[in-house]
Amino acid sequence: MKLTGSAKTALALTLAAMLYFGVRGMLGERAEPPAQGEVARPFAVVVQTVKPQSWREEVRLRGRTQAFRKIRIEAETSGVVAATPVEPGTPVEAGEVLCVLRLDARAAALREAKAAFNKARLDHEAAVKLSKEGFRSETALASTKAALDLARANLEQAEVAVDKTEMKAPWAGTFDARLTEIGAFLNVGDPCGVLIQRSPFLVVGSVSEREVAKIEQGDLGVAELATGERVEGVVRFVSKASDAATRTFEVQLEDPNADGALRDGVTADMTIAAERRTAHLVPRAALTFDDRGRLGVRTVGADDTVAFNEVQLLGESDEGAFVAGLDGAPRLITRGQEFVSNGQKVAVTEQKG
Question: Do residues 201 and 262 share a domain?
Answer without folding.
Answer: yes
